[in-house]
Amino acid sequence: MRDSVVYSRHMSDDFAGADVLISIRDLTFSRGPRRIFDGIDLDIPRGKITAIMGPSGTGKTTLLKLIGGQLRPDAGTVQVAGQNVHALSLGQLYELRKRMGMLFQTGALLTDLSVFENVAFPLREHTRLPESMIRTLVLMKLQAVGLRGARDLMPAQLSGGMARRVALARAIALDPMMILYDEPFTGQDPISMGVLVKLIHDLNEQLGLTSIIVSHDVKETAGIADYIYLISEGRVVGRGDPERIAHSDSPWVGQFMHGLADGPVPFHYPASDYAADLLGRPC
Ligand SMILES: Nc1ncnc2c1ncn2[C@@H]1O[C@H](COP(=O)(O)OP(=O)(O)OP(=O)(O)O)[C@@H](O)[C@H]1O
User: Fold this and answer.
1) N or C, where is the chain less crowded by C-beta within 10 Å?
2) Ligand 1 centroid, distance to 60 Cα (angstroms)
3) Is 1 a residue whose pLDDT tops 50?
């Protein structure tokens, strides 16, 4: 029996009676000949922080893009708030996306606009609110990330950590129901990292959000996650609350959570026979 099927049985136990915001079923997705997901099932509970972790290149960002409707699965379904994301019209998808805040590692600020204008940008794009209301909302979002005083700075004047907090204020500008974070801690010094970790946790509580965090930073992420999925080679290989994950006897989970070089996670990207390759022979 495939692991994902086994996990789906446990999953229904884990989330029995829980309010599930995102439900992924039997999801299959390939990039060319490479099968990234092979029929995975995941549930994301509403109002909680769920971490998605796993080795590099395993498909975590791809999963966020499938949830956000930027990519279309080969088979299976992604339901967000009861809507089948890939059965929506473009207009409906646009509406749904407004309710999904996204903080991607590469999601840079608009360099020609001030901090204030960066946060105001989605409000100006998606609403017809009067300027006085936009000002109030922007200041509230900047206050929430501790940067109200930095409103007049330009992105070039911000530290990396401040820039990410402004991006976070922009991601919550439209009061989304959820936020997808892709590697929010990458490149941060320990203090900025601590600030971001606390901010993600506090915003989730205060704004009643649902957060999904894709991250390699095991300690920080596990510290605020209510639930963790570990994915590898197209399947869910570990799942549970941080306590269960920490005490898992699965070699996959142990290798990843403890950063061990040796274990079941392969070091090499799938490749043809090495000797034949060096000799230039067809494999
Ligand atoms: N635009 C693309 N075209 C083709 N292949 C892609 C594309 N984007 C990603 N891939 C491949 O899909 C696989 C999954 O990529 P993805 O970025 O989702 O992994 P990840 O788990 O987020 O990795 P990392 O932790 O290193 O960010 C990788 O093998 C990657 O090479």
Assistant:
1) N
2) 8
3) no
Task: Check if 215 has its Cβ closer than 6 Å to any atom of ligand 1.
Answer: no
Tell me the chain's radius of gyration from C-alpha atoms.
20
Rounded Cα–Cα distance for residues 38 and 49 (Å): 24
| Type of residue at 69 | G
Exposure string for 232-241, b = 16+ CB within 10 A, e = fewer:
bbbbbbbbbe
Please, what is the angle between helix 160-171 and helix 115-126, to 10°?
20
**pLDDT at site 218:** 86
**In one letter, which amino acid is 134?**
I
Q: How far apart are CA 158 and CA 203, in angstroms?
A: 21
Q: Is 36 in the pocket of ligand 1 (CB under 6 A)?
A: yes
**Listed residue (260, 237, 220) closest to 42, CA to CA:** 237
Kindly report the pTM of this predicted structure.
0.85
- Its ipTM equals 0.95
Which band of pLDDT confidence, cut at 50, 70 and 90, is reported for residue 251? Answer: confident
Q: Is 111 in the pocket of ligand 1 (CB under 6 A)?
A: no
The set of residues, in sequence order, having a beta carbon less than 8 Å from that of 6 and lying 6+ positions away, is none
